[in-house]
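Annotated sample (chain length 173).
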Amino acid sequence: MGNPRYAEDLAALDDHWRLEAVVSRRTVLIVVGTTAIADLLERPVAELLRDRIDEEGEGQRYHRGIVLTDAGWFANQDLLTNSPFIAIGDKTGNRLTEWLADPQREYADLHQWTMGEGVHGLFRKFRPDCPQVALYGDSAARTRTAVESYMDKPDGLAAFLELSWPGRQPQPD
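Output written by the structure step:
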C-alpha cells in the first residue's frame, strides 16, 4: 500500500493541510525520483524500506518512514531539510541524490561506499540527529540490492535510525 498510515494522516492533515502534522525531525523521508521508471522500479523498493522503518518505529507518531518524490522534497525543502532522508536512485533519476552528491557542496563528512559491483551509497550528517543517505546502483536491480544490503548491514539502517531517533525508548506493549 502506498501509505499504510493513510487514515491517521488523513485525520491529521484534513483540517489544516500542514505537513508538520505528520512530519517532524524524527520522520525518515524516503525519496524517489519523479519519472515513470522511478515510480515503477524504485517506489516498490522505497515502500519495502518504509515498512522496515515503520516496524522499527513501533507505532510512535513521528518514528516512521514516508515515501515522497524528489519534486515534493524540493517543493517543501524549508521544512523537510530538517528530517533525515534516504534518497533512492542515482543522480540521473533522483534530484536529491544529485543534490547530496554535488561536489560544489564540499561536505566535510560525506562518505561514499560500494556494496558490491555497481552498488553504491552516500552518507553525511546534516546535524548529529539528521543523517542523509543516497542508495543507488548501476541498474534498477542493483539499486534494489543497495537498499536491501543497507537494511541488513549493522552499520546501515540500524545505525541510521539510532542517529535519527536518539534516546528512543520502545513503547510498552
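Annotation: The chain has one domain: 25-164.
Annotation: The longest strand covers residues 119-127.
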